[in-house]
Amino acid sequence: MMDYAALSALAEIIRRGSFEAAAAALGVTPSAVSQRIKGLEERLGQVLIHRGPPATGTETGLRLMQHLDQVRLLESTLAASLRPAGGPAVLRLAVNADSLATWFLPVLTALPLLYDLVVDDQDHARDWLRQGQVSGAISSEPVPVPGCDAIALGNMRYLALATPDFIARYFPDGVTEASLRTAPAIIFNAKDALQSRWVQLATGRRLHVPGHLIPASEPFARAVELGLGWGMIPETMAELALRAGRMQPLRPDLPLDVPLYWHVQRAMAPALAPLTAEIRKRAAADLRP
Amino acid sequence: MMDYAALSALAEIIRRGSFEAAAAALGVTPSAVSQRIKGLEERLGQVLIHRGPPATGTETGLRLMQHLDQVRLLESTLAASLRPAGGPAVLRLAVNADSLATWFLPVLTALPLLYDLVVDDQDHARDWLRQGQVSGAISSEPVPVPGCDAIALGNMRYLALATPDFIARYFPDGVTEASLRTAPAIIFNAKDALQSRWVQLATGRRLHVPGHLIPASEPFARAVELGLGWGMIPETMAELALRAGRMQPLRPDLPLDVPLYWHVQRAMAPALAPLTAEIRKRAAADLRP
User: Fold this and answer.
1) Which residues on B lie below 8 Å from A108 (Cβ)?
2) How far is it, in rounded angstroms, from Cα A37 to Cα A49?
3) Which residues form the HTH lysR-type domain (chains A, B) (predicted)?
4) ipTM, 2 decimals?
5) What is the pLDDT of residue A58?
6) B221 vs B238: CA distance, rounded Å
7) Among B190, B206, B218, whose Cβ lies nearest the Cβ of A24?
């Protein structure tokens, strides 16, 4: 068996960013924490913590933390008479930023756990699952990674939006290759491909578009509303601004539908059944079929 | 002189995540991009790009990208008759998530640049400046890093909030050590120390509090409003919910004021003067003195 006292110390250090904070959380001395980690590292022959500050987990360290979380989660679903030992159950999930900003959050009330959310864009949330660092993920990738199932949830519809002033200034003759090469876009981060995909739909070509990088969903939408650029925004986030005329579609005839899937580790699926049911229910209500 | 064609290729690869996308953006072939990077790496004797996918910058690669951005920015402030060569000016800034979610965004309209925002928590945004990866940062750290100036902006006031139901369930006898050890908090990420600092103010002790990790400002506030936990929320984000009675302070007498500073590289300060003026103005209007 693994040394779960050492794993608990490891997880606390990674979640809290220092040996001292982990020691305080566990009610032991920092040197006890340090010895547990050192012992674990020696047994495994690998570094598990980058000492920092802040202290962060190595790839193997993060995998071990995830293993501990899963064991605790499984323990928490044992009969209530068997009180799970060793701390509250933590569920680590990867969620794409736009789902977190729109429909996802209320599903977390389905299970009385502590959640540790990792936020990434929809095309990459599944990578966290592949690396064994989360137990479930909301992602646009349809193909499950080994040991996981993927459940189709529906489509999130994106619109290419800008302010009326921005459209008058940069797109006086409509959406053309020339205008797209000049008009700044708002882009979530370097991995975000939604703008390029829409540009390809609109022009039939892969174009370079200049852009601001704003890696947070609501500020992204507000940057569009401030006239800093055009951007791909989920229709549910833009409703009010569209109705008030503060934003308009560049091409009302050209939305972009992104399918979303709930990827869940098969070993965890029974324990997570209430969460899966809630995710299906919310998605059915808020996404397009 | 540095090879700026190679640096431009480097920056495009890091911003776009692949050699192919960088080549398309620069209008050259992928093999030309690849040769430029190889040549630069050989001359410097260092790897500049982790090949991925996605392709990401090494520490040195990121520093070189930042250097290019600064040269372009300085070029863009030359007399308008000298058209800057080699792409639009990009300004990379580190901003704490709560500033981005509240007062910061409109300042970006002060200069006609492309912005590349890095989001971190207020205690760590300055680290990006120290590593030479950004030209400016909004941070709670008062001491400037070498080569930079720090300008005091005022205080962001945080309140420890929860729903009335949550308070009735977890804090029936007020905020005690025992209740704080049981009631789940909402925590931004492993580096976020606001909850611990407030707990120390409230109890005089450093306590371990259990918590959910939700690394996005608006979802963080909504998680509190959904009753998932208590959390430290900027008063300006909570106004509506407080007035409507959906959230309440755990201790109305105990806000936590976090001072914010604009850190800016001295070499860039003249070029960024209009941005600095707008940041001062917005901060004076939206933060507490």
Assistant:
1) 212, 223, 226, 228
2) 8
3) 2-58
4) 0.74
5) 87
6) 8
7) B206
Cβ separation A212–B108 shorter than 8 A? yes
Q: What is the CATH number of domain B90-153+258-286?
A: 3.40.190.10
Per-residue pLDDT reduced to its tens digit, A192-209: 889 999 999 999 988 888
Asked if the Cβ–Cβ distance from B114 to A184 is below 8 Å, we say yes
At residue B78, the pLDDT reads 46
Under the banding of pLDDT at 50, 70 and 90, the label for residue A1 is low
Chain B residues close to A65, C-beta within 8 Å: none
Domain ranges of chain B: 4-75, 90-153+258-286, 156-257
Token reading at B55: 């392709």
Mutation for A interface: B59, B116, B127, B275, most A CBs within 10 A: B116
* A195: chain B residues, CB-CB within 8 Å: none
| Closest partner CB to A190 (pick from B54, B215, B217) | B54
CATH assignment of B4-75, given 1.10.645.10, 1.10.10.10, 1.25.40.80, 1.10.3660.10?
A: 1.10.10.10
What's the pLDDT band for B83 if we cut at 50, 70, 90?
A: very low
Nearest Cα of chain B lies from the Cα of A150 at a distance, in angstroms, of: 23
Q: Is there a contact between B218 and A214 if contact means CB atoms under 8 Å apart?
A: no
Domain B156-257 in CATH 3.30.70.580: no
Nearest to A16 among B26, B124, B190 (CB): B190
Mark yes or no for CB contact B108/A228 under 8 Å. yes
CB contact under 8 A, B114 and A212: yes
Instruction: Note the pLDDT tens digit of each residue in B135-179.
Output: 899 999 999 988 899 999 999 999 999 999 999 999 999 999 999
pLDDT greater at residue B207 or residue B191? B207
Q: Do A191 and B119 touch (CB under 8 A)?
A: no
* Chain B closest-CA separation from residue A37 CA (Å): 18
Q: What architecture does CATH give domain A90-154+259-286?
A: 3-Layer(aba) Sandwich (3.40)
Mean pLDDT, residues B185-191: 86
3-state secondary structure string across chain B: CCCHHHHHHHHHHHHHCCHHHHHHHHCCCHHHHHHHHHHHHHHHCCCCEECCCCCEECHHHHHHHHHHHHHHHHHHCCCCCCCCCCCCCEEEEEEEHHHHHCCCHHHHHHCCCEEEEEEECCCCHHHHHHCCCCCEEEECCCCCCCCEEEEEEEEEEEEEEECHHHHHHHCCCCCCHHHHHHCCEEECCCCCCHHHHHHHHHHCCCCCCCEEECCCHHHHHHHHHCCCCEEEEEHHHHHHHHHCCCCEECCCCCCEEEEEEEEEEHHHCCCCHHHHHHHHHHHHHHCEC
Domains A90-154+259-286 and A156-257 share a fold: yes
Residue A283 distance to chain B (closest CA, Å): 17
Residues of A in contact with B16 (CB under 8 A): 190
A4-76 placed in CATH 1.10.10.10: yes
